[in-house]
């Protein structure tokens, strides 16, 4: 299955949820949420902005429709770059553990599953444990159907959604996700960058980097902007992580196997197209 096909499954579930809340007004509500998200994402570096609220199913539909497949595809491409940097494979045993910070919308988990499917014969993983850590509990429902569909005959997938707000230092009671081989930070740094005025998010990064195991990999990818790049570079350099690969502010496209036409039904309905290309920055890092 392509990422766009997987996203279509989640969208159908989210649309039903939005219909329950908004009835016949649902399409107009969703259309207005496209605008809400686009406007919010132009203000990410503003320290006076309100945090983006993903609770509303119309917002979650708009997010998944517009961003999940392309963000997932970018992560698949970074995992392939990582595997090459590590000599051919990422995971060292038959059990793989991945923690997706800000991973509620499912972009990161579908990416890891897709990477493993594409790497059959190279990676020995037959059990994949994925922790999805996100402030917004409502995301937990959005992809529960996907969980079953993502398990394949070669890789058994176990996912755990854990509510975690990185602005709340109580997150330290959650420990299991720190055992991950790979941490994904896909379009998450820009989301919390402007909320770090008190240093609470910096504390989160430093604690995360300190408590992850030796050899753990961190994949950062985000909007290509030196504001976010410089902020995140400061965080990982302070923690002494090693840089395996990086690009800054480059034009980035999904692989040609990904066809946004899979979502044609919703494209016609909302007269809006899913994001495809971006200006992207990434860092692939390893804890010594
Ligand atoms: C732009 S989305 C990125 C989602 C996904 N990783 C992707 O690449 O498509 C940002 C995510 O961060 C979550 N988030 C926002 N603030 C957060 C916080 N303070 N703590 C944890 N998660 C947060 C949101 O709920 C949302 O799922």
From TrEMBL:
This is Class I SAM-dependent methyltransferase. It holds the Pfam family Methyltransf_34. The lineage of its organism: Bacteria, Pseudomonadati, Pseudomonadota, Betaproteobacteria, Burkholderiales. InterPro entries: Methyltransf_34. It comes from the Bacteria. It comes from Ideonella azotifigens.
